[in-house]
């Protein structure tokens, strides 16, 4: 009887993962990595996503002295988010200076719109540059993110008075690559979780029924419109309100599922939408479970974005993967995601004009859905964002760095 050959040994890479401003999108990213590579040895340090100005400047101080024992353990790779003050941390903990480092940019401070509460100093931008320079490899979740970071860096360096080294932007460009945050494979699986959601879409929050007729009196089902984002100013609530006003003025028949997380300082536009458009709303706020969230996505017709800040657009990508047709502004990352037929004109200085363009696209996409003529985006066209497609690239990036780890003896262990 032939004996079966033993499986080859599997690498155990020792990774220190640093999430300095541990927002929900950052958690979504590293949880997939940790769950998808369970045979590796992960050590995770996080800091709560609050006190922005202190957190981004103070994370190196907090960690260097509060977590010193953890930081001084042997690692093959440091994987840090761009909020990490990496240059200072490697200086305060010399052992980390010998470990290869990969920094992941979910966002950059150059392309983030400012609000009255925003930290408007130049320091967050400088810290982004220092962290990228202190890393051996820099990954961005989209080309828009990378390009706006490099352009912002070049513009800022030109404003500095003297002693600016040449070639900084080229150096950063050479060590950078684009690798998106993956979508869970479950986003691409057919499911029947939407069963029964027809009833939810046919009734609005205020209890009124389906109108069942368009302006001309012809019987038609209302268009199922989805908006899913954080309830914050940078997701464009003013633009959303303006679009709904245009649709109402046109007597366009639709139902609106308004998903997303509210905060203590939720913009007033959301309360106004809740009060004025109750006859259109079928959902107003967070879905109670992941299954319910995906059911809303699978049962919607169109996904609308009004964002003024979007570096990858995970919620939009999930809706597109579920079969929604896009109604997205022609700005930010969106031209990377869908063809021009799914984009409406971006008019930053004219809210009414942009709202009119968005309403036009909603009507066109609604007709395409009704006539079954829409061909984009096919769910398969988004497979490049699936975890199963991106996992090999993540493994390759991390292994390539881990194998350069300095120090005596093997740089990683084997099972």
Per DSSP, what share of the residues sits in E-state strands of 2 or more residues? Answer: 5-15%
- Structural class call reads alpha/beta
Q: Give the overall pLDDT as a whole number.
A: 88
Spans where pLDDT lies below 50 across 5 or more residues: 205-219, 406-410
Give an overview of the whole structure.
- The chain is an alpha/beta fold and 415 residues long.
- The chain has 2 domains: 200 residues, Glycogen Phosphorylase B (Rossmann fold, 3-Layer(aba) Sandwich); 199 residues, Glycogen Phosphorylase B (Rossmann fold), CATH 3.40.50.
- The protein has 15 helices and 14 strands.
- The strands form 3 sheets. Strands 3-2-4-5-6-7 form a 6-stranded parallel β-sheet, with helices on both faces.
- It is globular, with a radius of gyration of 24 Å.
- About 5% of the residues have low confidence.
Task: Outline the fold blueprint.
Elements: E1 11-12, E2 14-19, H1 24-36, E3 41-46, H2 52-66, H3 68-71, E4 77-81, H4 86-92, E5 101-105, H5 123-134, E6 137-140, H6 143-159, H7 168-174, E7 176-178, H8 197-202, E8 223-228, H9 237-249, E9 254-259, H10 268-276, E10 281-284, H11 290-299, E11 302-304, H12 314-321, E12 325-329, H13 334-337, E13 343-344, H14 351-371, H15 387-402, E14 413-414
Parallel strand pairs: 2-3, 2-4, 4-5, 5-6, 6-7, 8-9, 8-11, 9-10, 11-12, 12-13
Antiparallel strand pairs: 1-14
Helix pairs in contact: 2-4, 6-7, 9-10, 9-14
């Amino acid at each position: 009887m032939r004996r079966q050959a033993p499986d080859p040994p599997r690498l155990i890479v020792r990774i220190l993962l640093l999430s300095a401003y541990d927002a929900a999108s950052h958690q979504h990213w590293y949880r997939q990595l940790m769950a998808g590579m369970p045979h590796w040895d992960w050590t995770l340090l996080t800091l709560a996503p609050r006190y922005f100005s202190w957190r981004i400047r103070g994370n190196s101080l907090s960690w260097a002295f509060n977590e010193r024992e953890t930081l001084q353990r042997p690692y093959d790779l440091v994987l840090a988010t761009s909020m990490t003050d990496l240059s200072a941390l490697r200086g305060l903990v010399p052992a980390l200076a010998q470990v290869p480092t990969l920094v992941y940019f979910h966002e950059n401070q150059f392309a983030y719109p400012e609000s009255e509460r925003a930290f408007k100093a130049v320091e967050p931008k400088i810290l982004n540059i220092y962290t990228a320079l202190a890393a051996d490899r820099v990954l961005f979740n989209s080309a828009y993110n990378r390009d706006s970071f490099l352009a912002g860096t070049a513009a800022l360096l030109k404003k500095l008075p003297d002693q600016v080294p040449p070639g900084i932007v080229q150096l950063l460009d050479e060590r950078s690559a684009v690798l998106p945050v993956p979508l869970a494979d479950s986003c691409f699986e057919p499911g029947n979780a939407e069963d029964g959601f027809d009833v939810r879409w046919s009734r609005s929050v205020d209890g009124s029924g389906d109108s069942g007729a368009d302006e001309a009196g012809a019987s038609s089902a209302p268009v199922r419109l989805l908006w899913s984002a954080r309830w914050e100013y940078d997701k464009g609530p003013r633009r959303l309100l303006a679009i709904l006003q245009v649709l109402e003025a046109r007597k366009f028949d639709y139902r609106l599922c308004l998903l997303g997380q509210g905060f203590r300082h939720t913009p007033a536009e959301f309360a106004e939408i809740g009060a004025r458009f109750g006859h259109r709303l079928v959902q107003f706020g967070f879905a109670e479970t992941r299954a319910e969230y995906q059911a809303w996505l699978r049962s919607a017709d169109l996904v609308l974005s009004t964002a003024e800040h979007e570096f990858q657009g995970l919620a939009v990508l999930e809706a597109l993967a579920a079969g929604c047709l896009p109604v997205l502004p022609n700005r930010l990352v969106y031209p990377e995601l869908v063809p021009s037929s799914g984009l409406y004109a971006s008019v930053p200085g004219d809210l009414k004009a942009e709202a009119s363009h968005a309403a036009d696209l909603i009507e066109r996409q609604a007709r395409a859905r009704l006539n079954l003529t829409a061909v984009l985006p096919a769910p398969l066209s988004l497979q490049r964002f699936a975890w199963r497609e991106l996992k090999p690239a993540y493994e390759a990036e991390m292994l390539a760095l881990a194998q350069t780890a300095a120090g005596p003896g093997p740089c990683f262990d084997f099972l």
